[in-house]
TrEMBL record:
Pfam families: Nramp (PF01566)
Segments traversing the membrane: 35-51, 78-98, 129-148, 155-173, 193-212, 244-267, 287-313, 325-351, 357-378, 385-407
Organism encoding this protein: Alishewanella longhuensis
Signal sequence residues: none
Predominant location category: membrane
Alphabetical keyword list: Membrane, Symport, Transmembrane, Transmembrane helix, Transport
Keyword presence, Lipoprotein: no
Keyword Metal-binding: no
Membrane topology: Multi-pass membrane protein
Name of the protein this chain belongs to: Manganese transporter
Localization, UniProt: Membrane
InterPro entries named among the record's database cross-references: NRAMP_fam (IPR001046)
Length: 408
């Protein structure tokens, strides 16, 4: 009997969206609004599962990633130029900006765990930079340099399991009010919560994860002739990894709600949450939260450049050397940004705008691809299309609001 649960390519998606951005967003949501926005988290997990199932199915059936499929389907020169330019700007340039945040977040966790060691303090004082960013960036390069999908997948499964253990253990230590948590799944919008809802959904439903999942699924099951079995394994993977990511985010939000909401205390970043847990909930709570933040930052520091490399080489039909050069360049840029303490606000703003434009477009392209003759008998059913277009409508509203805020 096949197990209904497993960990595989969908774990890369979980590793991608549970990064420092999600930790900060979920922490701020809990600190400012308590458990009231858990419904938005539930929606984002369901929407992610709907889109990622289509991306994985596309990769398994065609044996190619989303980038390769878009290159074959979009033939009109002007449409191709516009779409490819937007993807390159949003995924490659955007992920370069986000990579600095991934390594900075991982560094905050490392600092809380080991920051007082003499060697690290000496490097900080002598060189005036963040040595954790250099060390963790180098570790990300080491993982990806091996070039073997199974090696990368195992590393990311390990990091996701570490995150799960750390954040869920922290939640149990803080003993949240379960009845209050359950009321948070009833949709309602507290005053001033609109931006936080957008951020909470936007950090989970991200376009580059579609490229990552389609390509990694194609690699995972490339030697599996039985498509039905491959799809069954992919569904089990999806049912395990994405909800696990939702549980991790729920744990972060609920921990922050228990520690901050209604106390009068102010939280500025995720590092504050780790440090503030010790006086109230004990030293283990601080170390577990810091470990989770470190694992979240490092996992995203691996998946962010990997997704960009899949997208770029798939779209432009580039060689394996370009694949490696793409992810290496993004990691190096992130190391420089994080180690020097830079805040490239203009680039981050640009990335947010392009991602806001890209999300509904890529969702529509994905729906087009999974309804094409390329998938034959594995095309979308009416139910899958209904769910897909409901998510598309939501991404359109989300992106419209994001763009409005970016230019207002």
């Amino acid at each position: 009997m096949r197990s209904p649960f497993r960990l595989g390519p969908a774990t890369l998606v979980t590793a991608a969206f549970i990064g420092p951005g999600t930790v900060v967003t979920a922490s701020m949501a809990g600190a400012n609004f308590g458990f009231a926005l858990l419904w938005a988290l539930l929606f984002s997990v369901v929407a992610t599962m709907i889109l990622q199932e289509m991306a994985s199915r596309l990769g398994i059936v065609t044996g190619q990633g989303l980038g390769e499929n878009l290159r074959q389907q979009v033939q009109h020169p002007l449409a191709r130029f516009a779409l490819f330019s937007l993807i390159v700007c949003a995924v490659v340039i955007g992920n370069s900006a986000y990579q600095g945040g991934n390594l900075t977040g991982a560094s905050l966790g490392a600092d809380a765990l080991w920051g007082q060691t003499d060697g690290i303090l000496a490097l900080k004082n002598d060189l005036n930079l963040n040595p954790w960013a250099l060390l963790l960036g180098s570790l990300a390069i080491l993982v990806l340099w091996q070039g073997h999908y199974r090696w990368i997948e195992r590393w990311l499964i390990l990091l996701v399991l570490v995150m799960s253990l750390a954040f869920i253990s922290t939640l149990l230590l803080t003993k949240p009010d379960v009845s209050a948590m359950l009321t948070g799944f009833i949709p309602h919008m507290p005053t001033g919560a609109t931006l936080t809802v957008i951020a909470l959904i936007g950090t989970t439903v991200v376009p580059y994860s579609l490229f990552l999942h389609a390509a990694s699924s194609a690699k995972k099951w490339q030697n599996q002739p039985d498509k039905q079995q491959a799809l069954a394994e992919s569904h089990a993977d999806l049912r395990t990894a994405i909800p696990l990511g939702g549980i991790i985010t729920l744990a972060i939000l609920s921990t922050a709600a228990t520690a901050y909401f209604g106390t009068g205390l102010t939280m500025h970043n995720a590092g504050d949450l780790a440090l503030s847990l010790e006086p109230v909930f004990g030293v283990w709570a601080k170390y577990l939260m810091a470990l989770g933040l470190l694992a979240a930052g490092l996992s995203s520091a691996i998946t962010t450049p990997l997704a960009a490399a899949y997208a770029l080489t798939g779209l432009l039909n580039l060689s394996a050397n370009w694949f490696r050069l793409t992810w290496l360049l993004i990691i190096v840029i992130g190391m420089l940004v994080a180690s020097l303490g830079l805040r490239p606000l203009t680039i981050i703003w640009f990335a947010q705008v392009t991602n806001g434009l890209l999300l509904p477009i890529i969702t529509l392209c994905l729906l087009w691809a999974v309804n094409s003759s390329l998938l034959g008998a594995y095309r979308n059913s009416k139910r899958q299309n209904l769910l897909g277009f409901a998510v598309f409508a939501a991404t359109l509203l989300l992106s419209g609001r994001t763009l409005y805020l970016a230019f207002s």
